[in-house]
Design goal:
Layout: E1 4-7, H1 17-21, E2 26-28, E3 34-36, H2 45-54, E4 60-64, E5 67-68
Antiparallel strand pairs: 1-4, 2-3, 4-5
Keywords: 3Fe-4S, Electron transport, Iron, Iron-sulfur, Metal-binding, Transport
GO molecular function, one term: 3 iron, 4 sulfur cluster binding
Cofactor: [3Fe-4S] cluster
Length: about 70
């Protein structure tokens, strides 16, 4: 199963780590807050875990169905 990804805009500090690591999956919005790219190719769960773990503010959240995945 592929994780569902969200970015918590209230937590994002615009470091750009996710955008640099996976530019096809993440981008900056007009306020320079990271967001997922609609229609982006799905990333493997292992890669999504890596990207979420590398987010310095912890703004990237992963879900397996309705359950949030502990990325730490």
């Amino acid at each position: 199963m592929t994780y569902r990804v969200t970015v918590d805009a209230d937590v994002c500090i615009s470091s750009g780590k996710c955008v640099a690591d996976e530019p096809e999956a993440f981008r900056f919005d007009d306020d320079d807050i990271a967001e997922t790219v609609p229609g982006a190719p799905e990333l493997p769960d292992r890669r999504l875990l890596d990207v979420a773990r590398n987010c310095p503010s912890g703004a990237i959240r992963l879900f397996d169905g309705d359950t949030e995945v502990d990325v730490l």
